[in-house]
Amino acid sequence: MTTLLQINSSLAGADAASTRLADRLIAGIVARTPSLVLVRRDLGREPLPHLDATRLAALARPVAERTPAEAAIAAAADAVLAELVAADQIVIAAPMYNFAAPSTLKSWFDHIARAGVTFRYTASGPEGLLAGKRAYLVTTRGGVHRDGPSDHLVPYVRTMLRFVGISDLTVVYAEGLALGAAPRDAALEHARAEIDSLAARRAA
């Protein structure tokens, strides 16, 4: 049975352009894979706490040595990690905020980058342990930044996914959404057409 994990990171929730485009992609995949199990995590509505010294210590401490408070922290982090490990496909909806990924998405990556579980260090360098998964990134932005030095979102997401072993990444862009009604409509229509084609070609 195929499992698809949707990660939404917009502060605007279900009304966000990134969320709506990701929903469209998922609907196309689901239509062609009726048995697919869909798991959604909305980081805008339920943000993960950012890592601090307390949370980091809880995750690093051996299970038998954790305090009850540390055990609760670790259990919540493990639940997020388990969603990714169980997923065959991942759809990440991410608007660009101030030239980078939303901080909630950064926190999600901080929680799932776990030594010995999603990656390990070897004599030749780090090795990702989640190979074989397929990922999609649907990203929206007010300006136009694709492949330019001001885009710190896509390179970051690509790097983090590769770090945990996920190299099959397809990116869908919707840019210029703050440049007026016509450019916005054209960008969204282009993204929708790309998504429809993508869902038809790559549905599991």
Question: What is the topological layout?
Answer:
Layout: E1 3-8, H1 17-32, E2 37-42, H2 53-60, H3 68-86, E3 89-95, H4 103-112, E4 119-122, E5 125-128, E6 134-140, H5 154-163, E7 168-174, H6 181-202
Parallel strand pairs: 1-2, 1-3, 3-6, 6-7
Antiparallel strand pairs: 4-5
Task: State the share of residues found in helices, binned by percent.
Answer: 40-55%
CATH superfamily: Flavodoxin domain
Q: What's the order of the H and E elements?
A: EHEHHEHEEEHEH
* CATH architecture assignment name: 3-Layer(aba) Sandwich
What is the rounded distance between the termini?
10 Å
Low-pLDDT runs of 5+ residues are: none
Main sheet overview = 5 strands, parallel
**Which structural class do the helices and strands define?**
alpha/beta
Strand content: 15-25%
At CATH level 3, the topology is Rossmann fold
Number of DSSP helices?
6
Spatial ordering of strands, largest sheet:
2-1-3-6-7
Query: How many independent structural domains?
Result: 1
- Rg to the nearest angstrom? 18 Å
- From the spread of the alpha carbons, the general shape counts as globular
- Strand tally is 7
Summarize model confidence as the mean pLDDT.
95
CATH class: Alpha Beta
